[in-house]
Amino acid sequence: MFKKDITPGAKSKVKSSVQRAIRTKITETYPLLAPHIDEIIPKKSQLDSLKLPDRVTLYALDSHPLFYQHMDDPITPHLRTVHQFPAAFPRIRIDRGAIRFVLSGATLMAPGLTSAGGRLPSGTSATTDKDEEKEAEEEKRYGGRDLEEGEVVVVEAEGKEEACMIGQLRVGTREIKEKKKGVVIDAGHYLGDGLWRIELD
């Protein structure tokens, strides 16, 4: 969706009632972000709305992109917001082999998640009696709850510190684990794409 450089359209001020509704929608969609919402969008601040190609609306504060929304899709955080609050979003991890494809704008496919370096939620919300600290840490990081189709998810890369992509799941994680093939995210925002490089000054 954002492979090419983006020239933002006209900037308009978001009405205070609409800004309150956006804050509410963000905290409903991403409950772990609720404690930080006043830091992201302070109550007395002025949120700007910018029209982008392909019917995408970008919400920015002081020329800093925060969230975007494609038509009626869920409001999605910009990767800079994800990097500020990485633990506030559901996460999956791709293996090293998938990194270059994701960063070139390719569709994220299931094999990059189901191989040895990939990680998906375990599918159980109960804690396990694992002896190894690494496995327990990954259980905590990637969660126990299976993610559903349509949920916005952050994609991390094996061996890397920060998230490399965010997008909407086309299939649930349970189905990904069962089939081990097919499209997982086909239109995401990734490091180095047009939305990442956008200039709002």
Provide keyphrases for this structure.
single chain, 11 strands, 8 helices, five-stranded antiparallel sheet, four-stranded mixed sheet, alpha+beta
Topology overview:
Blueprint: E1 11-13, H1 16-29, H2 37-40, E2 47-52, E3 56-61, E4 64-70, E5 76-77, H3 79-84, E6 91-94, H4 96-102, E7 108-109, H5 111-114, H6 133-142, E8 152-157, E9 165-168, H7 173-179, E10 183-185, E11 189-190, H8 194-197
Parallel strand pairs: 6-8
Antiparallel strand pairs: 1-2, 2-3, 3-4, 4-5, 7-10, 8-9, 9-11
Description:
There is one protein chain. With 201 residues, the chain is of the alpha+beta class. Helices cover 28% and strands 22% of the residues. The chain contains eight helices and eleven strands. The strands form three sheets. Strands 1-2-3-4-5 form a five-stranded antiparallel sheet. A four-stranded mixed sheet has the order 6-8-9-11. It has a two-stranded antiparallel sheet with strand order 7-10. It is globular. The two termini are 22 Å apart. The model has no long low-confidence stretch (mean pLDDT 89).
